[in-house]
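Researcher: Hi, I'm a grad student and pretty new to this. My advisor asked me to get structures for two proteins we've been looking at. I'm not sure of the right format, so I'll just paste the first sequence and hope you can take it from there.
Model: That works fine. Here's the first sequence with its structure tokens right after it:
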Amino acid sequence: MIVGRAEGDYVWDLDGNRYIDFQNGWATNPLGNCHPEIIEAVHQAHLRYGYHWEHPLRFELAEKLGEIMPGQQLPRFTFEVSGTEAVESAVHMALCYTQRRHIISFTSSFHGEGLGTKMISGYTSENNVYMEPWGGGVIKAPYPYSQNIPADMSPGQYVDYCLWYLETHIPSYITPADNIAAIIVEPGLAEGGNWIPSPDFIQGIRRICDKHGWLMIVDEVLTGLGRTGKLWGVEHYNVVPDIMVVGKNLSGGIEPCAGVAARDEILGDNPRASAGSTFAGTPAGCAAGLKTLEIFQRDNIVAQAASLAELAEQRMAGWAERYAIVSEVRCLGLLMGISFTHPDRDQMADDYDDSWVARTVRNEMLINGVWAICDTEPTVRMYPALNMDQQTFMQALDIIEAAIQTVEKGAELVGDYPPIPGGVTGF
């Protein structure tokens, strides 16, 4: 699928076929594709400033972001070009502020594709091949998935185990607590499969950080600014982080703009925590951010997202029970994922991969007019615009369920033969 044109809730391929956009620029277009007001704001910024580092829009946007941060407790902001750069800036900031050497991250987490963020991410073991020597300062902790839980633990027991690992195992057997600077966590573990943490887990991280003097870094690049049905994903958990990373939705999908918010003492007096790059906080990027925030407030975008999310939860509520290939449906607002498995998995070939099922469903969706994401995990991930037309949104969910039905029928017909990777009905 190569995009030939994009507008509002839709994209068209190079052959002119139209698709409902549940891919959404990899969750980067909160107001749909090519929002005309944001494009005009960017155009005017280009006409007025071109590119210069010293311009007033960066101060205006930083001030507005400070006003809407969780608890209004993160008043400082530093700009970066992308979420990848912003995560690296946040980690460097934490190391320098605490004067400690280790960062804790989680399995299946994804924080970017730069050198530093590859080391921090726990996406897959393949992601860091040949780069192993660079990862010495990162400790990977288990993440409390809601599926494939080890040792027959219940979900609650597994959360307790993961918190015990952070609080007791790491300080006792890996490195002393006073050598750990921070924990970095996503309020919804997005790229790794749209896993939704429990309140006990996120609140437990806050408690452990307070106990040991660690900083809590929340990566809101994908979950922030309305994606989860609240302005910030972390607001679902009644927790305020020490450092927060933002990006994607910040500039309405029109210009690169990202950054890091932090408590005053962390960023305000931390001379070693240098950050930024030539194109961090461009006039056009800041103009896009200002216009995006204006539209969010004017059109009550977060409430629109929450309303669509409620419809999605109701529509998909019974799918895991109704369809044998659906193992779990996960939603935190419009951070939506459907995990798949073959109904006769125990009889499959040794090299069988459940992601084949997910990709087959995703292909069937695409053929019938819905574009979503399925990469390495056995999950179809969906990120519609936060203000998508309700009728279009429900039509997309109908197409998705029809795709599941088609693929399930194929699985029943052929039995234990694995699907053909990339095939539409390859069971």
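Researcher: Oh nice, that was easy. Here's the second one.
Model: And its structure:
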Amino acid sequence: MNRFPRVRLPRAAWLLALPAIALPLAVQAAADTDTLDGARRASVIDGALARLDEAYVFPDVARRMAESVRARVARGEYEDIRDGGAFARKLTEDLRAVSRDRHLRVIHHPAGAPQDADGAAAGRDEREQFARTNYGFDKAERLQGNIGYLEITRFPPRELAADTAAAAMGFVANADALIIDLRRNGGGAPPTVAFVQSYLFDQRTHLNDIYERVGDRTREFWTETRVPGQKFGGSKPVFVLTSQGTFSGGEEFAYNLQQLRRGTVVGEVTGGGAHPVRPFPIDAGFSIGVPFARAINPITKTNWEGTGVQPDVATPASEARDVAYRLALEKLVATAGDEARKQQWRDLLSGLKPP
């Protein structure tokens, strides 16, 4: 009999990244200690594999992960690991060795992890953390030549981030070109990605689909026709900065615009994570982030899992902003109808260091 109850996947809980998770623990199978014995290790392994069998996006990969870990158990590879954090890291490493899925992660919660079954305290802590980081909207600037610059480091849940996102997008709405910096963006919620991108299109546009294994269902993500405040619009140039650290929801943002030919991606190949993830409790001291779905781009019919988003203009991440700024000025010069403004952008270009 399975000791690990099946858990429904609420659609609102989707994340295209796995930040530090504070779990509401519906399962209290064992008291958490920092020293693990054989029975506890076996229980955590059983729980992790049960969750993967239940919900991992590719059932065949879940089976192969289970076979691999069971073989390691038989060889005694976990017998000397008594520290909870070390055990979680080792199990994560072994599961990823089969799946190659960077979203998959076993998490150790030291003594004192949240114990409230409804998650209220964890939710308050999460909201406060998002607020302290301005909901991921780190910088909004107007560069010389009326070029907007916006740095977004995460995409929190839409209901939390919407007001700040609208204010940031409103600040750059009157720019002639826009640079969106995702070099430090580790991901977040797909509905927030769609909300922010709604400011970059004039017409309702199909951005992405996400297929869930449990329930065999697909959810479509489209831009919103009406948004708070002023849109940047669908015709002015957009440049998206990426790095090797751009991951998950940050990658989706770049990939969506690239495939729709709405933005030019400048920087490095990204991290390669396209599977939304959700935390599942194992017991009082461990949980597992299970990638339970996969992105499907409506144009390519695939995604960036394992490959990353390939930049249109490859350049070291440290130089991406300067390169994008030059490209923006060149684009504005090439398309300007007003000679005075064209000369202003030419003057700015001539003052830049040679590439």
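Researcher: Is there anything I should tell my advisor about the second?
Model: You could mention this: Residues 11-114+121-125 form one domain.
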